[in-house]
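Weekly structure sync, notes
Attendees: PL (lead), two postdocs, one rotation student
Agenda item 3: pending single-chain targets
PL asked that the sequence for the first pending target be pasted directly into the notes so everyone works from the same version. It is reproduced below exactly as submitted, 277 residues in total.
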Amino acid sequence: MVEWLIEPLTYSFILRGLAAGILASLACATLSAFVVWRGMAFAGDAVAHSILPGIVIAYMFGFSMFIGAIGAAAAAVAGIGIISRRRELQEDTAIGVMFAGLFALGILLLSRVAAFQDLNHILFGNILGVNQSDLIIMALIAAVVVLLVLLFYKELLVTSFDPAHSVAIGLSPELIRYGLLGAVALTTVIAVQSVGVVLVLALLITPAAAASLLSKKLSKIIILSIIFSLFSTIAGFYGSYYMDLSSGPAIVITLTLLFVVSWIIAVIRNRIQAGKG
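Predicted structure, written out during the meeting:
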């Protein structure tokens, strides 16, 4: 059993890949509860898909994927804010426009410069392709995201559950929302390397969705989200190694199974409570 656990860790590229997956999972799970409770799933999905042209442009000109992805994410968040600020359009409409336009641009660029293998790498991740410099950038971004949540936890909590009260005490729910969207954008950038553009939403949504079935207290949901996300990353990673599977889908499938188990537990608990009542 010990040898089974240690064997993959004897390779440096696998250690880097596992570390990258853990960093991405930690950052995503930290934000997951706020994304779910504030109804920002569509916004998270839009940002995840909107970074594709930035990644492709980075590929075309030979510079860091992270720089291209961060630039595209910043453009997406700014575009959503500018379009929806005047209130001529609802925010979800602005998000849809940016999502569709930037993702289509990414696909167009990709079809011009990349072979299928490159498409597969960008859309579904390549966790084993993480190098030392990528890992450093991912660690810095993950640290920034976690630190921001710790520093602004009360503000996030108040604006999530009582926007009217937050305005009364001098907070700006809109500013907090776009700050959170920016954090989601940064987190998406590092998660893309692990699971790719297509599957990154699962890391942002599924952990808190599963945790919300087991607890209604935000702090517990965040803790459970982190536990679920880290477990899924490690289990999916080992599954991909020993069963020759793609790591991104393996991680997401593990997360989805945890959600199903949480849902079954919640259903059984509710029936027991209903029977006692």
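Discussion points:
- The domain at 2-196 is CATH 1.10.3470.10 (ABC transporter involved in vitamin B12 uptake, BtuC).
- The chain has one domain: 2-196.
Action: rotation student to compare against the earlier draft before next sync.
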